[in-house]
Design brief:
The chain has helices at 45-57, 73-82, 112-126, 145-157, 171-183, 207-214, 245-250, 270-286, 290-299, 314-321, 331-340, 349-354; strands at 9-11, 18-20, 22-25, 62-64, 91-96, 131-136, 161-167, 191-195, 217-221, 307-309. By secondary structure, the protein is an alpha/beta fold. Keywords: Oxidoreductase.
């Protein structure tokens, strides 16, 4: 992929902001020894800037980071890069919630104090005077959500941030935030960043239904489930610790997280290998890679605004960006992939949606058709 006009753009939720449908996630920017950020897939500043340059050449305009990514180094790398580019051409998203200084009891959460302090620190590291999308990285049981949302609203009104979004929340939390902002005349959230892939579909039951009803754009993170859906791993083989984060984690699977799952969960999982086989057949039919097909499946979900990818090399970036435009999976292929790893059947969501089938869909009502 070489032409910059082959990247598609979507509105981010019901805001007027347009973003490329492939967002570059930057959790891999920066190296920090003795932490999650020390593995071989992390990139130093020079290589990170090369990836950013190529991403923009390919038409990308949407960067996602967080203050805790490599303890601020990811934001710093982006900030240094932004100095060489037109700031108004790039949509920058970052996050707040987790502590940056574990010795400080107030360094964490979604209190007004912590958010205000954190946004100033992120602005400094990013070397910009505004953040396009400021996201709550996770729910905070320690702070009334009313305090959090009023703080975000104040930051929008004073121009520190343009919009705010949410991440890693469940259905009742998302609806509570939407309703509080709506009925108090506050700026609403425009996005939900949630783990979503062919291997993680739980949010389809409730959170994404709310997003459809309320005009919130979904930003899937870990769309390839930490590399599991790339097709590069082989059954009966142990992942190379120098070639993937999963291989790195495999040395000590107690360090496994959602973005880098334990290989033991999949190495002998027949359902997983069946999905890889199906992905491989569809990929061969289209002349694409398995990763491209897995990304394309997400891009064709109507609730998705932009898919967040990671890239540790230019080749990987170009391969993933090729999912953006110029081809599509058929309805049959979409259904085949969905059936290969269906969303987990849960009560009460399954019966709720079963009794609201096609005969109960009213185009004049914002009911959900699934």
């Amino acid at each position: 992929m070489t032409d910059i006009d082959t990247t598609n753009y979507n509105f981010l939720g019901k805001s007027g902001l347009k973003v490329s449908n492939i967002c570059l996630g930057t959790i891999t920017f920066g190296v920090l020894k003795g932490t999650f950020y020390e593995c071989s897939t992390q990139t130093e500043e020079e290589k990170s800037h090369q990836i950013l340059d190529r991403y923009v050449e390919l038409g990308g305009n949407f960067l996602d980071t967080a203050n805790v990514y490599c303890r601020g180094k990811s934001e710093e790398i982006i900030g240094n890069w932004l100095q060489k580019h037109k700031r108004n051409r790039i949509v920058v998203a970052t996050k707040v919630r987790f502590p940056m200084d574990t010795s400080d009891v107030n360094s964490g959460g979604l209190s007004r104090r912590h958010i205000v302090q954190s946004v100033e620190e992120s602005l400094c590291r990013l070397r910009t005077n505004y953040i396009d999308l400021y996201q709550a990285h996770a729910w905070d049981n320690g702070t009334p959500i009313e305090e959090t949302i009023r703080t975000f609203d104040d930051l929008v009104r004073c121009g520190k941030i343009c919009y705010y979004g949410l991440s890693n929340v469940c259905g009742w939390q998302l609806q509570k935030i939407v309703d509080f902002s709506k009925y108090n005349g506050l700026n609403p959230p425009i996005s939900l960043q949630q783990q979503y892939s062919l291997m993680c579909r739980q949010s389809e039951w409730e959170e994404f239904m709310i997003c459809k009803n309320e005009g919130i754009g979904v930003l899937p993170w870990s769309p390839l489930k930490g590399g599991i859906l790339t097709g590069k791993f082989k059954r009966g083989e142990t992942p190379d610790k120098t070639q993937s984060r999963i291989g790195f984690i495999h040395q000590d699977e107690k360090r496994a997280i959602e973005a880098a799952p334990a290989w033991s969960e999949y190495s002998d999982n027949d359902a997983y290998w069946n999905l890889i086989d199906i992905l491989g057949k569809i990929a061969a039919k289209h002349g694409k890679s398995i990763a491209q097909v897995a990304l394309r499946w997400l891009l064709q979900q109507d609730v998705v605004a932009s898919v967040i990818i990671g890239a540790t090399s230019l080749k990987q970036l170009e391969d993933n960006m090729s999912a953006s435009a110029g081809w599509e999976l058929s309805t049959e292929e979409m259904n085949t992939l969905g059936a290969a790893n269906p969303r987990i059947s849960c009560y009460p969501w399954e019966p709720i949606w079963k009794v609201n089938g096609p005969d109960r869909f009213n185009k004049f009502n914002q009911s959900i058709k699934i």
